[in-house]
Design a protein that fits this description.
By secondary structure, the protein is an alpha/beta fold. Helix content is 32%, strand content 19%. The strands form three sheets. A five-stranded parallel beta sheet has the order 2-1-6-5-7. The longest helix has 19 residues. The chain binds adenine. One of its GO terms (biological process) is methylation.
């Protein structure tokens, strides 16, 4: 998979890709991530990426021209399956969207800033608009990092144990069950006996019951 991220603040985005699972995925060539600084696609001396809104109103709007240059340049090199715009008015990111995006070959992620991009950018290029939640961030970069993390860990081979993404919360619309490790007893708190039974059928059944119970208590909306 190849991900091209278009941003005015590449420095805000780099560190999540320089540690742990994302770093290993890149080093193993399971994913390529490229950052494009929108200012490199400007034509004026001020390297402007935004301007006042037509019609008046607070907040700047990102110009179509540098974005067009950047996206068109990328499209001349390869086909893109999806051009995603990070915006609070997009569809809310969930596991199902992450699963869908993880199956794509080449994607572009455009990070919004200020009030957002000129509507014509959305009309001309964007195939999917994604929000990471009902709150407004200063820009799309942190949202793009969240989306990339959720997507990249689903690419086959990225997680050591192939099954571990399948047992995450939200796969199957259930939250994950409780998990335990050493010691067997801590401060009088014991690990449930069934986990030592060696009976994998019973353990699986216990996990399913716990996952259902937790989902019912915390996120009944997932069961509807
Ligand atoms: N940009 C600003 N707020 C955002 C959000 N909630 N999700 C994605 N991109 C954003």
């Amino acid at each position: 998979m190849r991900i091209d991220i278009i941003t005015v603040l590449p420095e805000l985005l780099q560190s999540p890709f320089e540690a742990s699972i994302l770093k290993r995925a890149i080093e193993a060539n399971l994913v390529e991530v490229h950052f494009h600084n929108l200012r490199d696609y400007t034509t004026d001396n001020y390297k402007s990426v935004d301007d006042y809104q037509f019609g008046g109103g607070a907040g700047m709007v990102m110009l179509i021209e540098p974005i067009d240059k950047c996206i068109t340049g990328l499209q001349a090199e390869r086909n893109y399956d999806e051009i995603i715009y990070m915006t609070p008015d997009g569809e809310r990111l969930n596991q199902s969207i992450a699963n869908q995006v993880s199956l794509k070959e080449n994607i572009i992620i455009l990070c919004g800033h200020y009030k957002g991009v000129d509507q014509r950018v959305r009309d001309k290029f964007i195939t999917r608009e994604i929000s990471i939640g009902d709150y407004v961030l200063s820009g799309g970069e942190l949202g793009a990092a969240v989306l990339c993390d959720a997507v990249i860990r689903l690419i086959p081979g990225v997680l050591g144990n192939e099954t571990s993404a399948l047992t995450d919360s939200f796969q199957d619309n259930l939250l994950a069950p409780p998990i335990y490790t050493r010691p067997r007893e801590y401060d009088g708190m014991k690990v449930p006996e069934v986990l030592f039974s060696g009976n994998f059928g019973a353990i699986e059944q216990w996990r399913e019951e716990q996952a259902y119970k937790r989902t019912k208590e915390r996120r009944p909306d997932l069961l509807e």
